[in-house]
Amino acid sequence: MESNIREQIKKLSVSERIILVEEIWDGITEENIQLELSSEQKQEIERRSKELKTNPELGKSWEEIISKLKK
Q: Range of 62's domain?
């Protein structure tokens, strides 16, 4: 069954797979599952956040990302 699901997923377009991932993620968050980050992961998030605040031109807005994916 697992390989059948993988084969079906491979047949989807990239945008359809992204939507599928979003739906899976939303389902996980709806179940109130607590995801624990390691201290290294938290430090990396903090580092990236500071870097983005210092150099905002390094990042892209959510709208830019979605627009690019839809093209």
A: 2-70
